[in-house]
Amino acid sequence: AVARHRRTYGTRHPSVAGALNAHARALVALGRLDEAEQLAREALTLWGSALGRQHSAYAGALGQLADVLEH
Known about the structure:
4 helices, mainly alpha, 0% strand, 71 residues
């Protein structure tokens, strides 16, 4: 799904960040925490650059990263 979003929207689009976060959540559930962390950090960077650090999506991405790091 992430690759499809990148092809469709480009690499810097908020939809890509959403797909990255969704994939990171799935990886956490599978116990693949290193991969999940990498994707969560990439999503956070995308949200920040696309929408700004004051946007609620950025805050959600911070929460996602915190969830990954707690495991």
